[in-house]
Design a protein that fits this description.
About 55% of the residues lie in helices and about 15% in strands. It has about 100 residues and is α/β, with parallel strands linked by helices.
Length: about 100
């Protein structure tokens, strides 16, 4: 089973100290590079950044179809992380996409 996650579900689980639920439910969770960068670039949340960097069951995956990501961003108004998560989910035939964006 392939599971892809966007940023907000991961942040929400970190806030309640239950990121481990993803590991228990799915084993591995894939995130695109843009989502990884959103999670680790905010210097105001050093503990969360460290937690994501050390997490063994979250796998950062490079999205190769940049044209699809750009088209989705322009046509939907979604941000880079959301767009990459959708494209990654589609390209890997993921069983589940964890996202909170209605447009997504």
């Amino acid at each position: 089973m392939i599971v892809v996650a966007d940023t907000t579900p991961l942040i929400s689980l970190m806030k309640i100290d239950h990121l481990d639920l993803l590991h228990q439910l799915f084993g591995e969770v894939q995130i695109p590079s843009a989502v990884f960068e959103e999670l680790v670039s905010n210097s105001g949340f050093p503990n969360e950044c460290r937690q994501i960097r050390k997490c063994t069951f979250i796998k950062k995956v490079e999205v190769t179809d940049v044209r699809a990501v750009n088209l989705l961003r322009r046509s939907s108004g979604l941000d880079a992380g959301e767009s990459e998560a959708i494209v990654l989910s589609d390209s890997t035939n993921a069983s589940l996409l964890l996202m909170d964006e209605v447009k997504g």
